[in-house]
C-alpha cells in the first residue's frame, strides 16, 4: 500500500541531505544548456562538473556520487566517451541519469541509446515522445518503432507515455520521469503525478536538461524514485513561483534559479502530488 506521507518524508530527507553535504554529480550534457544545468545543480545544493573526454568522464564517474548523461548535442568523441562511462557507472554501482534527447534522430544517437540498455540507467528523464521512442528502441511495452520527437519537443501526451515509462522502469530497476504540462514519475510499481511548473519552461533552453542534472544530484542521497520525484517537484515549485514574479522568459530563467535556491524541503514535500500503485504490466 502506498504511503504518501512516507514518500514526502523521504523527499524532505533527500533535500536536506543534499544541502548538508554538497555532493558532486558530474555531467556530460547538451552543450546548448551546460550553464543552466550547472547553475541548477548548484542552486539545489549540489556540486557541478562538466566533461566530454573519456578519461575525464571516468574520473568523474568514480569520484562523484552520481552522473548525468544527456545526448542532446553529440560530438564525435561521444561515440567513445558515452558507452565507456556508462559501463564504468554500471560496473561500479554508481547512480546515473539518462536524458535521451531527440531519440530517433541520426544513426550515432540511435546506436548510443541502444548501447545504454545493457547499462540500465538509474533514472531516465525525458519528454513523453522521448520516453515512448526509447521504449520502442529497447523493444519494451508502450514503445513505438517510429519516433514522434519533433527536434527536442514532444508531440505525445504525458499520459500517453505511461505504459512506456513503467516498462522502462521495470527493465532498469530504477525510475523514469516524464516531463510535460503535468509530470509523471514511476519506479514501475508506484506512480506519482506532480503539478506546478510554468509555461515559460517551454520558452527557455535547458529546463529539461537541467532537471536531469538535478535528479543526478538527488540520486547521490536517496533512491531513484525519490530522487526523480524530488527533482521534478522542486522544478514545479520553483517554476510556479518564478512565473508570478516575471513577465517574460529571459527574466524567468534568472528568477527560476533563485527559486530553486530558496525552495525549502517543506515546500517540496507539500506541493500538489498524486500517488498510486501501478495496477497493470
Automatic annotation (TrEMBL):
<protein>
    <recommendedName>
        <fullName>Hydroxyethylthiazole kinase</fullName>
        <ecNumber>2.7.1.50</ecNumber>
    </recommendedName>
</protein>
<dbReference type="InterPro" id="IPR000417">
    <property type="entry name" value="Hyethyz_kinase"/>
</dbReference>
<feature type="binding site">
    <location>
        <position position="179"/>
    </location>
    <ligand>
        <name>ATP</name>
    </ligand>
</feature>
<comment type="function">
    <text>Catalyzes the phosphorylation of the hydroxyl group of 4-methyl-5-beta-hydroxyethylthiazole (THZ).</text>
</comment>
<keyword id="KW-0418">Kinase</keyword>
<keyword id="KW-0547">Nucleotide-binding</keyword>
<comment type="pathway">
    <text>Cofactor biosynthesis; thiamine diphosphate biosynthesis; 4-methyl-5-(2-phosphoethyl)-thiazole from 5-(2-hydroxyethyl)-4-methylthiazole: step 1/1.</text>
</comment>
<dbReference type="Pfam" id="PF02110">
    <property type="entry name" value="HK"/>
</dbReference>
<dbReference type="GO" id="GO:0004417">
    <property type="term" value="F:hydroxyethylthiazole kinase activity"/>
</dbReference>
<feature type="binding site">
    <location>
        <position position="206"/>
    </location>
    <ligand>
        <name>substrate</name>
    </ligand>
</feature>
<comment type="similarity">
    <text>Belongs to the Thz kinase family.</text>
</comment>
<dbReference type="GO" id="GO:0009229">
    <property type="term" value="P:thiamine diphosphate biosynthetic process"/>
</dbReference>
<keyword id="KW-0808">Transferase</keyword>
<feature type="binding site">
    <location>
        <position position="125"/>
    </location>
    <ligand>
        <name>ATP</name>
    </ligand>
</feature>
<feature type="binding site">
    <location>
        <position position="50"/>
    </location>
    <ligand>
        <name>substrate</name>
    </ligand>
</feature>
<keyword id="KW-0067">ATP-binding</keyword>
<keyword id="KW-0784">Thiamine biosynthesis</keyword>
<dbReference type="InterPro" id="IPR029056">
    <property type="entry name" value="Ribokinase-like"/>
</dbReference>
<dbReference type="GO" id="GO:0000287">
    <property type="term" value="F:magnesium ion binding"/>
</dbReference>
<keyword id="KW-0479">Metal-binding</keyword>
<dbReference type="GO" id="GO:0005524">
    <property type="term" value="F:ATP binding"/>
</dbReference>
<keyword id="KW-0460">Magnesium</keyword>
<dbReference type="GO" id="GO:0009228">
    <property type="term" value="P:thiamine biosynthetic process"/>
</dbReference>
Amino acid at each position: 500500500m502506498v504511503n504518501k506521507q512516507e514518500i514526502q518524508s523521504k523527499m524532505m530527507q533527500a533535500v536536506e541531505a543534499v544541502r548538508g553535504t554538497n555532493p558532486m554529480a558530474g555531467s556530460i550534457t547538451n552543450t546548448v544548456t551546460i550553464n543552466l544545468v550547472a547553475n541548477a545543480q548548484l542552486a539545489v545544493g549540489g556540486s557541478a562538473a562538466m566533461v566530454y573526454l573519456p578519461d575525464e568522464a571516468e574520473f568523474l564517474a568514480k569520484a562523484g556520487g552520481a552522473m548525468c548523461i544527456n545526448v542532446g548535442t553529440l560530438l564525435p568523441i561521444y561515440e567513445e566517451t558515452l558507452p565507456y562511462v556508462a559501463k564504468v557507472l554500471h560496473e561500479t554501482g554508481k547512480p546515473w541519469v539518462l536524458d535521451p534527447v531527440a531519440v530517433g534522430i541520426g544513426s550515432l544517437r540511435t546506436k548510443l541509446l541502444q548501447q545504454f540498455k545493457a547499462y540500465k540507467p538509474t533514472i531516465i528523464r525525458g519528454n513523453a515522445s522521448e520516453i515512448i521512442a526509447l521504449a520502442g528502441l529497447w523493444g519494451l511495452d508502450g514503445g513505438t518503432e517510429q519516433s514522434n520527437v519533433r527536434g527536442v519537443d514532444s508531440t505525445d501526451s504525458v499520459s500517453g507515455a505511461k505504459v512506456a515509462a513503467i516498462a522502462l522502469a521495470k527493465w532498469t530497476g530504477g525510475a523514469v520521469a516524464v516531463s510535460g504540462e503535468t509530470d509523471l514519475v514511476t519506479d514501475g510499481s508506484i506512480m506519482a503525478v506532480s503539478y506546478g511548473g510554468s509555461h515559460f519552461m517551454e520558452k527557455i533552453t535547458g529546463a529539461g536538461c537541467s532537471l536531469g542534472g538535478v535528479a543526478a544530484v538527488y540520486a547521490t542521497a536517496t533512491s531513484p524514485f525519490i530522487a526523480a520525484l524530488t527533482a521534478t517537484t522542486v522544478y514545479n515549485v520553483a517554476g510556479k513561483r518564478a512565473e508570478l514574479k516575471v513577465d517574460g522568459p529571459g527574466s524567468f530563467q534568472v528568477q527560476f534559479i533563485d527559486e530553486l535556491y530558496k525552495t525549502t524541503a517543506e515546500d517540496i514535500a507539500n506541493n500538489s502530488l498524486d500517488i498510486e500503485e501501478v495496477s497493470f504490466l
